[in-house]
């Protein structure tokens, strides 16, 4: 055999080696893909920093929140990627901005990692118990879609009605707060 040993593999071993080689090629191509390289972190808590919405900053969303009834409790802005699998799903928001509300109108800034399509909610948790108390809390949604009810219970608006696009700079948005009475 001219000094070389002949190696024989069973069909199962050959199939396993082929599968491993195919996985290595696929994983190698994923490492080069920019989409696969983007890691998404959910439920990140941030605080209101208006400097992130200053001239030349971005991508970010400058939100003017109108109709706040009081300075009580907490104001929470949740930002979602505009994907049906994430919209209004628990712990599937990208960021939750936490700040103190200011009666009337106030401005908050939400920086985002990339330009793209988003949707957001604003929750005025009047007693700051981290729950939605429909009898006292206020809420708002990007693009201010009409919120319909069924037997007095608010129905979530569609993603398409709340979707907006953020460019490379600062995107301005107005969200009107609504309360039960």
TrEMBL record:
Keyword entries, A-Z: Signal
Pfam families, alphabetized: DUF2141
Signal peptide positions (record): 1-37
Domain of life the protein comes from: Bacteria
Protein name per the record: DUF2141 domain-containing protein
Organism: Alteriqipengyuania abyssalis
Lineage: Bacteria, Pseudomonadati, Pseudomonadota, Alphaproteobacteria, Sphingomonadales
